[in-house]
Design goal:
Layout lengths: L1 H5 L5 H23 L6 H12 L4 H20 L3 H20 L18 H16 L6 H5 L3 E3 L2 E3 L9
Antiparallel strand pairs: 1-2
Length: 164
């Protein structure tokens, strides 16, 4: 079962999706977990989630972990499906609780009350792709699933034992 979770092919386009999403969510997760990039940090984010948005503390904690640790997993290509699933849950809740009333579009012009959910839909599409196909080329998932470097590129074939 664990091997199926790690299994992926050597498609470099999955690597592009994974890395871009990982870098973007690292910035968002670091805002919430560490207070970097103009964020409020862990304590203030927990207070916002639990007091203002009425999210139970365990789910608020998991949301912060999904963004920060999930981003690291995506960047490394380690447990990419799990990381993508965590981000899917995070984005689905963000749409339902915060962004749905604001409509589809982001607040590009500053004319609406808040941000729409178009960014979240793109993230959901990327995450579903990664959940279905895996982390792609140049990922720890690929290495841990038994891929071997053969002829300059990764292959899922195992070396034949000598004398056979």
């Amino acid at each position: 079962m664990f091997k199926k979770l790690l299994n992926t092919n050597d498609d470099p386009t999955l690597t592009v999706l994974r890395l871009v999403l990982g870098v973007l969510f690292f910035a968002h997760g670091a805002q919430k977990a560490l207070g970097w990039f103009g964020g409020y940090g862990y304590t203030a984010t927990m207070n916002l989630f639990t007091e203002n948005l009425h999210i139970p503390a365990v789910f608020a904690f998991l949301a912060i972990c999904a963004e920060f640790l999930g981003a690291l997993g995506l960047i490394l290509g380690l447990l990419g499906r799990v990381a993508a699933f965590g981000i899917v849950m995070n984005m689905a809740v963000a749409i339902a609780i915060v962004h749905l009333p604001n409509g589809l579009f982001m607040n590009w012009t500053g004319q609406q009350k808040g941000e729409g959910f178009e960014f979240h839909l793109l993230v959901l599409a990327i995450c579903v792709t990664l959940m279905v196909h895996g982390s792609g080329a140049w990922s720890l998932d690929r290495i841990l699933s038994g891929a071997r470097l053969a002829g300059g590129h990764w292959s899922m074939t195992r070396p034949r034992p000598t004398g056979v």
